[in-house]
Structures are given as structure tokens and as C-alpha cells.
Design brief:
The complex is a heterodimer of chains A (300) and B (446). With 300 residues, chain A is α+β, with helices and mostly antiparallel strands. Chain A contains eight helices and eight strands, in the order ααααβαββββααββαβ. A two-stranded antiparallel ribbon of chain A has the order 1-4. In chain A, strands 2-3 form a two-stranded antiparallel sheet. In chain A, strand 2 and strand 3 form a beta hairpin. In chain B, strand 15 and strand 16 form a beta hairpin. The chains are: A alpha+beta (300), B alpha/beta (446).
């Protein structure tokens, strides 16, 4: 009996003493944090994508609460989240300028010829080490999807050997931009209607035509069609001036290779599911989760 | 018989062309001369479209410290200057010369024989620089930079690399048999850059007994020692050759001159002789054209810029329906090509037309953990570990000696699961360089 009791006793005494130590440490070394920071962290999407310019959501929240700077915006949450954050913090947030990723290539399996029978590592960067590209066009999407792993929102997929952005999912965090060896991914302003040139080939028209039936051949028809002087051809490739462009679509109508593309974004603010779970911090701001009624009584 | 310490393999030699004399190829109608044929910055273009050039005229000047000049291989007219496929796998700015068949030399070039002993070492170095000579074994490091090592490094051993350990290739072998005096004169020129008590070795593998005999005959009066090496790949690697001949070890991050050695290829020595004694820039090279898919295998002397398609025609074409793989360089370190428009450059030591389906249709299988890749690695790395880290944690690969890998391909050759070890290691190197570049960008923007 004593063989069991002795260790039991020793352990319980040890536990008690160590417990006291922990209690002492937690009181002595308590770091006071603003409860508002936790509230803001809970409201942010939590993807740590870095689109705001901070390493993650926690740092962004801390900075936002500390400075109450109305220009600090979570691009992913968009206007909806900005409004909620502003209500909590008692400031009026600036308008978020939503962006989304577009693909500057239009050459899929059927339109672009393949360069060689590539059987090596299925990664775009590995291809670029030994070949200009898997396809004959050296400027376009390689089509092996090295960017897909970087997207936390499932917004990228390969369709017919060409990367495709699923606009409903894309939040414009820009994590994929660095991951493309060909630089065919670009962040574009999110508007209801938005035109972009889906080609980067700087080869002359004949060569581009030979490699890809969807590539920009620098025919100048779009330049002539534009009434706002917003499009010009540089190095055999059309470039749209974002400042002048009114997204009227006259250029897209005349483009013989259909490489000026229209994207229609759904502009309704995305509903961010709020993740505040249980308690009320007594934050004195209008309640974001409708837990507190209008006359200060708890809503539940 | 001497050989290097760690690892190494002995693949089938397949040196079919070792008994065939070097044939001079006729000048093709169109030459494509890339401006980047060496390690370092591409040459700066100094001609324009429509210009008439003469044989040996400089068309690209060395641009920066590590760079080399590029010359017109024959007389003709510049047709266009455009991006063109290069044997390194990328597009490179290339000068297209329409040849006129007159072969008119620039005045003062290829005319007289100069005694190099009468020239000062600065004059010799200047001649090597102007001739655009680079290491012709494969790496393409500008020779004039190599000849002027830092002042505090003393070179006491000079090695001529006649190992030619790559299967199929016999270009250096034939050059040693046919031009031994010229090669040795080139070696004497290199030796004249360094102090008197210099030891000069010529390393040749024992699968070339005739070359060993010929070089021994000619080298004896000059006081150069011919070393017979045991055939083993990658004996022609700089660090391996130094280890085999002098037993010195070139450590991590060290260069040959850190251990007092310098290695030069046979073809480079020949080019140095031509540049210094005959005022002839590097405009042609000897290469082996081999492989079972080719009708007639040959050793040829081709002008730089000859497209592979012209060489195929010269060698009687491809046996119908047999070819599966086109490789520029040797089968171990060469690069697979996708086009016949790729030109011969200063570092092209061979072109192979492979018919084996096995090579083209191999499939990666899971690693067996057999450890053979570690056994054969000549620098004692762990190839499978590096390849796995390339897929999971590229940054960590650096700690396991990623940058030391010279991509000799021994590990991928012995791998029973046919894993693309070298390609993964190359991939890891690229991704590491990317990480550095991205970090630098972030620092600048912050």
C-alpha cells in the first residue's frame, strides 16, 4: 500500500508547488493586452495572406487598434469588413479598393503548340531551368500550376493547360504573383466590368501567330478603335493605360485574336463570417454581433 | 593508376568515334552566333543588321569583368539580330550571319606565326582576351579571368585536362592525337604566366592509350609529366582531377587556385595556341557527333554558330524513325534539346542523337532508400536528401551543401528508381536564388 501512496503523495505535493509557481508567474509577468486587439483578430479573415502589408492578421490588428489609422485596410474583407471594423473602433474607414488576380495569357492546349514532349518535374520553375516553356510561346503560362499551392482561397486552377482564376474566390491578396516564373499573374482593380490584354508576347506578329492563335499580334486595330487614347502597342503587344481606360469595350470588339478580355466581377460585398464566439468584452462601441441591444441590454 | 577519392561511376564508354579523324565541315549558308556563350555577362553587340563582316571580326565585346568577346566565324552579311534558342535551354540574343563563301579574314589575323616567348605576359593576356577564349570543357569560364588569379594566390601546379570522362565524346581524344604539338605549345603559353618552379601535369584516362603514348612522346622534352588515370566518371571535373593527380582536396566554397592548382582543357589549350601564335580568335571548335540514331558518326571541326540541322545533313541524316533524344554535350551532363535550330557554341563538346527508348520513356518511382546515390557522389553529398528538400524546404537544402553540387549526374545514373535527382537539385538552386531575390525586393521596398 505504501508503495502506491508514497509516489502519489510526492506527485501531489509537487503538483501543488508547481501550480503555485505558475500562478505566481501568471500574476507577476502578466502582459496587459488591449482586448480590442483580440476582437479585431477574430473579425479578420485569418488567412495571414499579407495583402495588407503586415506579416499576418494579428500584427495588422495590433497596428490598427494602436493607431486607429483609417487608411489601414484589409483588402480581402473589403468594404463590408472595413465598415464593421470602423464601427468597433469608432472611426470612419477609407473605402477599400478591391483588387483581383487576372491571367495575362490566353494560350491553352488547343491554341498553342507544344514545344517538346516534357516529362520532367511537373513544376513551372523546373521547366524554366531547361526550356523556355512547355509551350512554344516563351512568354505565356507554362501550365503546370506552380502558383496553385500559394492560393489559400482555391481561386486558381489549370483548365486545358492554362491557369484560370475563379473570380468568385479570388480575394486579391497577391500571394500568387511571385510564384509565377513567367509573370502572367497580375492584380487588377476590381470593377463591375474590366478589360485587360491577355497576352505578354513581345515577338513580332508573324512569330506570335505561328506559336499561338490567341496571342496579340500587334495589329493596331485596338489602338485605332479606342476613342480615349487609352491603348497603345509596345513591342508588338497591346498595353492598356489604366488611368485613361473607361472599360467601354470598343477595343475588344475589333481584336481579331480575341486577346482583349472582359472580366465581370461580382461587386456585392462578400459576407465575412464573424468569428466572435462567446463573450462580450464590454467594448463600448456599437455591437458588431448584435449581442447588445439598442438600449444596452443583452440581446440573448 | 591514379584516380579521385570519393564516389564516381563507370558508365558504358560508347566511344565509337575514337578512331575517326577530325573532318572539317564546309561553311553553312546561315550561322547563328549567340552573344552569350560563356559564364557571366553576355557580350555587348557592336554590329547592326545589314553590316558586312569579315572572318574573325569582333561582333560582341566583352562587357564587364567576367565576360568574353564573340567573333564572326566567317565573312558575310548580318541578316538579323533576334532572340533564338540556345543549347542552355533559354532564348539568347543571337546574330545571324549570311555567309558569302569568300572566307575573307580581317587584316592581321591568321597570317603569321608568332613566337610567344617574345611577347610580354600582358600582351599574351590581352591576346587571349581579345580572342574571346573561354573554358571549352563545358563550363565556359572566360580564360583571361582565370589566367589572372588574385595576387595572394600562388599557382604551383598546372594541369591539362585530357580525361574526357563523358561517354561518347572523343573530340579531345582526337585533338590530342592530331595536334599534340599545338596543344603543348598552348600549355607552355599558360605555364609562362606563372613562376618558374611550376609542375605541369597532363591527365589522360587509360581508355585512350594511343593519346597517352603520343602526348608522352611530345611532352617529355618540354618537361611535362603525363599521368595515366583510371577511367572513371567524373574524372574530368576540375576538383576531381586535382584530387586524382595531386591528392589535394578543394574544399567547400574553394576554387582550384586556393590549393595552388589550375586546370585547363585540351581544347582550351589549343585555342590559346591559335590565339597567341596565330592571332586567330575562337571561331571554330572540334566536336563529336555521335549516337545510334545517326547514319554516320563523326568528329568534326565546325564553325561556332553552325546549327544542329546543318550538322545532321553533313553526317548523312538520321536513320528513319529511330531518334528519341537530342543532347547537346555529353550524355551525363549535356542538356536535352527540343529543336534542330540550336547553334554550336564555344562550349558544345558534342551532339548526341540517342535512339534508346529507355532514356526517353523513363518513369520516376518511389525512393528505395538504397543509398547508392550517396555512394557515388564525388563530393560526398546526399542527393536524395537534397532532392526531397527541394520539394519541401528549399532553404534548408543550402545547409546540406546544395551549392556545391556540380550536377555531374552520377546519382541519377545509378538510381534504381530513376528519380530525377539532378533536375530536383537544379530546381532547388533556382528556387533558392528566387528566395534571395524576393527577400532583397522586400528589403528595398521596406
Amino acid at each position: 500500500m505504501i508503495e502506491i501512496l508514497t509516489p502519489l503523495l510526492i506527485l501531489s505535493v509537487l503538483t501543488f508547488v508547481l501550480g503555485l509557481c505558475i500562478l505566481f508567474a501568471s500574476k507577476k509577468f502578466y502582459v496587459k493586452t488591449d482586448p480590442m486587439v483580440d476582437t479585431v483578430i477574430a473579425m479578420l479573415p485569418g488567412a495571414n495572406c499579407g495583402a495588407c502589408g503586415y506579416p499576418g492578421c494579428a500584427q495588422f490588428a495590433a497596428e490598427l487598434v494602436k493607431t486607429r489609422d483609417s487608411s489601414k485596410i484589409c483588402p480581402i474583407g473589403g468594404d463590408g469588413l472595413s465598415y464593421e471594423l470602423g464601427r468597433i473602433l469608432g472611426i470612419t474607414m477609407d473605402e477599400a479598393k478591391p483588387v483581383a488576380c487576372v491571367v495575362l495569357c490566353n494560350g491553352n492546349e488547343t491554341t498553342t503548340k507544344f514545344l517538346a514532349d516534357y516529362k520532367g518535374i511537373q513544376d513551372c520553375w523546373a521547366v524554366k531551368e531547361i526550356l523556355p516553356s512547355v509551350k512554344q510561346c516563351a512568354y505565356g503560362c507554362v501550365g503546370l500550376g506552380s502558383c496553385i499551392a500559394s492560393c489559400k482561397y482555391d481561386a486558381l486552377k489549370i483548365v486545358d493547360g492554362l491557369i484560370k482564376v475563379i473570380f468568385e474566390n479570388c480575394v486579391g491578396c497577391g500571394a500568387c504573383i511571385d510564384k509565377c516564373p513567367q509573370h502572367v499573374l497580375k492584380l487588377n482593380e476590381k470593377k463591375a466590368r474590366k478589360y485587360h490584354v491577355a497576352c505578354l508576347s513581345t515577338d513580332n506578329g508573324g512569330v506570335t501567330r505561328k506559336y499561338c492563335s490567341n496571342g496579340c499580334i500587334g495589329c493596331m486595330l485596338c489602338v485605332k478603335a479606342c476613342k480615349f487614347d487609352a491603348i497603345k502597342v509596345e513591342n508588338f503587344c497591346a498595353v492598356i493605360d489604366e488611368k485613361k481606360c473607361v472599360n467601354c469595350g470598343l477595343c475588344a470588339k475589333v481584336c481579331p485574336v480575341k486577346c482583349i478580355q472582359l472580366t465581370k466581377y461580382a461587386m456585392a460585398p462578400k459576407k465575412i463570417p464573424l468569428k466572435i464566439e462567446d463573450s462580450c468584452d464590454g467594448c463600448n462601441a456599437p455591437c458588431p454581433v448584435k449581442e447588445v441591444g439598442e438600449n444596452g441590454t443583452l440581446g440573448y | 593508376m591514379k584516380t579521385f577519392k570519393f564516389g564516381g561511376i563507370h558508365p558504358n564508354e560508347n566511344k565509337f568515334t575514337s578512331a575517326l579523324a577530325i573532318e572539317t565541315m564546309q561553311m553553312p549558308k546561315l550561322l547563328a552566333v549567340p552573344l552569350a556563350q560563356h559564364i557571366g555577362k553576355p557580350a555587348a553587340l557592336i554590329v547592326k543588321v545589314g553590316d558586312e563582316v569579315k572572318k574573325g571580326q569582333c561582333i560582341g565585346e566583352a562587357d564587364g569583368f567576367i565576360s568574353a568577346a564573340v567573333h564572326a566565324p566567317t565573312s558575310g552579311k548580318i541578316k538579323k539580330i533576334a532572340q533564338h534558342p540556345h543549347s542552355c535551354g533559354k532564348f539568347v540574343k543571337t546574330v545571324f550571319i549570311e555567309t558569302d563563301g569568300k572566307e575573307e579574314w580581317v587584316k592581321g589575323l591568321n597570317t603569321f606565326k608568332i613566337d610567344f616567348k617574345k611577347l610580354s605576359s600582358e600582351e599574351r593576356l590581352e591576346k587571349i582576351k581579345n580572342a574571346g577564349i573561354v573554358g571549352m570543357g563545358g563550363a565556359g569560364f572566360p580564360t583571361h579571368v582565370k589566367m589572372a588569379p588574385p595576387k595572394d594566390k600562388r599557382i604551383d601546379t598546372l594541369i591539362l585536362n585530357g580525361a574526357e570522362c563523358e561517354p561518347y565524346l572523343t573530340a579531345d581524344h582526337r585533338l590530342m592525337l592530331e595536334k599534340p604539338c599545338e596543344i603543348l605549345k598552348g600549355l607552355s603559353i599558360i605555364a609562362s604566366f606563372f613562376p618558374e618552379n611550376l609542375k605541369v601535369y597532363i591527365g589522360i584516362e587509360n581508355n585512350k592509350p594511343d593519346a597517352i603514348k603520343r602526348m608522352k612522346e611530345k611532352a617529355l622534352p618540354l618537361g611535362f609529366e603525363v599521368i595515366t588515370l583510371k577511367s572513371r566518371y567524373p574524372q574530368g571535373g576540375e576538383k576531381q582531377l586535382i584530387n586524382a593527380i595531386t591528392q589535394r582536396t578543394v574544399g567547400n566554397g574553394q576554387l582550384p587556385f586556393d590549393v595552388g592548382c589550375m586546370v585547363n582543357n585540351v581544347a582550351t589549350a589549343f585555342a590559346i595556341y591559335e590565339a597567341v601564335c596565330k592571332n586567330k580568335p575562337l571561331i571554330e571548335r572540334v566536336l563529336t557527333v555521335s549516337g545510334m540514331a545517326l547514319r554516320s558518326k563523326k568528329n568534326i571541326k565546325a564553325p561556332i554558330g553552325t546549327m544542329f540541322s546543318d550538322i545532321v545533313n553533313f553526317c548523312g541524316g538520321i536513320a528513319s524513325g529511330k531518334m528519341n533524344l537530342l543532347i547537346s554535350g555529353g550524355p551525363m551532363m549535356g542538356k536535352a534539346q527540343y529543336s534542330f535550330d540550336v547553334p554550336v557554341v564555344k562550349t558544345t563538346s558534342g551532339i548526341l542523337f540517342i535512339d534508346e527508348l529507355k532514356l526517353a520513356e523513363k518513369k520516376e518511382r518511389p525512393c528505395l532508400r538504397c543509398g547508392r546515390c550517396e555512394e557515388v557522389c564525388p563530393i560526398n553529398l546526399k542527393p536524395i536528401l537534397l532532392a526531397n528538400l527541394a520539394q519541401t524546404n528549399v532553404e534548408q537544402a543550402q545547409e546540406y551543401g546544395l551549392s556545391q553540387c556540380m550536377e555531374c549526374g552520377s546519382c541519377a545514373f545509378v538510381c534504381p528508381s530513376k528519380r530525377d535527382l539532378v533536375h530536383w537539385i537544379k530546381y532547388a538552386k533556382v528556387m533558392n536564388a528566387n528566395l534571395d531575390a524576393i527577400a532583397k525586393c522586400k528589403l528595398q521596398s521596406a
